[in-house]
Each structure stands twice: as structure tokens, then as C-alpha cells.
Amino acid sequence: MSANSPQFELAIGLGCRKGVSGEVIASLVREALARIAQPGVAALFTVDAKRAEAGLAQAAQALAMPLHFLTQEALAAVADQAQTSSPRVEALFGVPSVAETAALAGAGPGAALILPRIARDDATCAIARAPLLKEATP
């Protein structure tokens, strides 16, 4: 893997309303991973406007996964690839789904959404697979 390629294969996008617990978020992530039944090193992604949400940090710690915050611009750049939409989320963040766009943006160019948004108890989760990168040959 090159220095510029991601150190993960699965990008897990997260969204939540204010005050959602880390336990709820971590449980939803575990459910999402069980649904895809595809192994891979995973990382968590969400919009930077959620940086103050303690539940996200708690979930990351419980899952032993890194948590990355992305700009709204990064999410907007992949919004056309989202498969679901929420009028509330569009009004607040300008994207159809925080979870799906965070997963796609986090996984990088050429990513594929392998689990569209699932939701429970005011939390959302989606999973994208990072593209397989081949090492350049001389």
C-alpha cells in the first residue's frame, strides 16, 4: 500500500441527532458490519459539524476504530452518489444523507456504497468500500 492510499478498506459513514449515545451508535455500526459480512479494516467518518458529539467519540473508542471528520464540501462532492435522502438532512447539511456521503467521501475516489443508510434511535450508518489500489510498477 502506498503512503497516499487509505489504511482501511471500509469507510463507515455516520450521522446522528444531538445527544445520541455512543452505545447506540456502536450497536448500529456492528449491525451494519454484520449485514455486509465483508471483512476489512474499517474507519469511521462523519461531517465536521458533528465534532462536538460525544457519542461519536465514544462509539469510535468502543469499536476501536479511528474517527475522521470531513468538511461539508467533501460530502457535497459525492452527493450525487447517495442512494437515500432525508429532507431534514438536506436542509441542515446540504446533502441527501450524511451517513452515505461521509462513507463515500471517506473511502475516496472510485468508492462504492455497499450498504445504503440504515437508521435506528436517531443514528444513521452507511458503508462504502475503498477502491482496490494497485501498486505502480516501474
Task: Provide a descriptive summary of the structure in words.
With 138 residues, the chain is an alpha/beta fold. It has one domain (10-129): CobE/GbiG C-terminal domain (Nucleotidyltransferase, domain 5), CATH 3.30.420. It is built from 5 helices and 5 strands, in the order βαβαβαααββ. Strands 3-2-1-5-4 form a 5-stranded mixed sheet. A hairpin with a 2-residue loop joins strand 4 and strand 5 (123-129). Helix 1 packs across helix 2 (54-63). It is globular.
The strand count comes to 5
Q: Provide the low-confidence segments as ranges.
A: 1-5, 133-138
- The CATH topology assignment is Nucleotidyltransferase, domain 5
Number of helices: 5
* Rg of Cα set: 14 Å
Shape: globular
Mean of residue pLDDT values:
90
CATH hierarchy class name: Alpha Beta
Helix content: 25-40%
Strand order of the largest sheet: 3-2-1-5-4
Class computed from helices, strands and strand pairing: alpha/beta
Query: Which series of helices and strands comes N to C?
Result: EHEHEHHHEE
CATH architecture name? 2-Layer Sandwich
Helix and strand layout, with pairings?
Layout: E1 10-16, H1 22-36, E2 42-47, H2 54-63, E3 67-70, H3 72-76, H4 87-93, H5 98-107, E4 112-120, E5 123-129
Parallel strand pairs: 1-2, 2-3
Antiparallel strand pairs: 1-5, 4-5
Main traits of this protein?
5 strands, 138 residues, Nucleotidyltransferase, domain 5, single chain, alpha/beta, disordered N terminus, globular, five-stranded mixed sheet
Can you summarize this structure?
This protein is α/β, with parallel strands linked by helices and 138 residues long.
